[in-house]
Structure prediction request, 494 residues.
Amino acid sequence: MLSKHRVVDLLPTKHGHFIGGMYVDPRGAEVYTNIAPAYDMPLGDVAVGTADDVQVAVDAAKAALAGPWGRTTPSERAKVLRRVAELLLEHRQAFARLEALDSGKPYSEAYEGDIARSAYNFQFFADLTAHQVSPSYTSDDGTLHTTLREPIGIVGLITPWNLPLYLATWKLAPALAQGNAVILKPAELTPLTAMAMGNVFNAAGLPPGVVNIIQGFGAGGAGEALVKHPDVKAISFTGETTTGEAIMRAAAPQLKKLSFELGGKGATVIFADADLDQAVATAARAAFRNQGQICLAGSRLIVERSVAPQVIDQLLVAVRSIKIGDPLDPMTTMGSLVSRDHRDKVEKYAAYAKSCPGVEILCGGKIPSDYRQGAYFEPTVVTGVAQESRLIQEEVFGPVLTVQVFDSADEAQNMVNGTPYGLSCSVFTRDINKAQNFARSARMGLVWLNTWFSRDLHTAFGGMKRSGIGREGGQYSLDFFSEFKTISMAMRPY
Ligand code: NAD
Prediction:
């Protein structure tokens, strides 16, 4: 039985790793202080994991695979995953609170979004794995071929800070559904909800060592050690594009299986014939939800010239209604950025915008005067930005929205496609042909027509160009976490 306190009580303690079903002290003595970014408040010391800790986790994972977990059937695993989902929902408030404190995001968003979706990840992959069948085929000479799906073995999951539990569970659920043992390395800025999951896995009856969680840093630390460990056969990574490059280099000598969900520079395109009220409300949400720290954020608004003045006016009204505040206050719609360092990075982009001739900051562009404490930044809207500008080409990953104006669909398309990224865009128009043609020409892994962030877990999720390699979601995730084996048996013709 999982006590409600056990989840929350993790807060003030020193956080080691979760290995072999136990919270354990790290091998080394080094720790860092985890900060609640909205309050500049320490949330406890966290272990700086090393290659030695990764080795202990690998040993625990090997033992788990050699034990009963290695012989589970899909329906047995589905049962455990469903229990994990139930427990997460039972402890939804505690998890949402941890996430809000650790990341600075509004509690309400964590409760309605992150934690609910995390639980659903387990439910969804439990159902999907329980209903899978292996294809079989008889060739002309009577040979019976069956393609089996087997676990890879030990897989490494490396996740970012912007949707900490949601993205960790998005990988954990399919990896476990396929019968693997995993080592998760959560982002160093947001270690808490992943850590609390250890209790949930134990309470759900997952055998020790099936999930191991190593805290610490990436380059030169636990993340890199995980990527380089020869017994870790696949890496599923979500994070920055440049980190993806480093992981690919480190994994290359061992030819590891890799899945990369990387950076984005999403666009919202509004044609003159769109439902402007709906389009502008969605564009504001797409730019500023989670403080603009979403890979799928619509951080570029691209609007047809004839409606640009009206769209900008409506947009500014929507932005001014955003309520910056304490993440735990239910009225708050925009919390703190994830850290002061990250806020400094966003502030530098705003300063750069101010230095560019012709660029106009329509609102925001600074730290809110009431919030000197914490890592807050005002929602910012910028116009007059050239397509080649760093503000368009680089991922700011904060509450900064650029507005560009177009005269033709071709021009809008060139703007949308004219960055190194290819993750997502939204298009608003009442003309279905225009919408479909636009979608087909977009070099984006996800295109939303008259909506944003519509995420059905059955569908392929991932980016083109520098936004990723491979796809996650539904069968795509299960395939990534599987080894396929074809067994062919000679049969006497009947
Ligand atoms: P990051 O790349 O800095 O870190 C992500 C994780 O990688 C962390 O756990 C970190 O410790 C680890 N890491 C860093 N260097 C490593 C290395 N050399 N070897 C192994 N592990 C290493 O990213 P972040 O700042 O935490 O997250 C923000 C980024 O994530 C943005 O670029 C955003 O677009 C991207 N993101 C993408 C998606 C998507 O689905 N495409 C979703 C969310 C976030």
Q: What stands out?
A: Residues 1-12 have pLDDT under 50 and may be disordered.
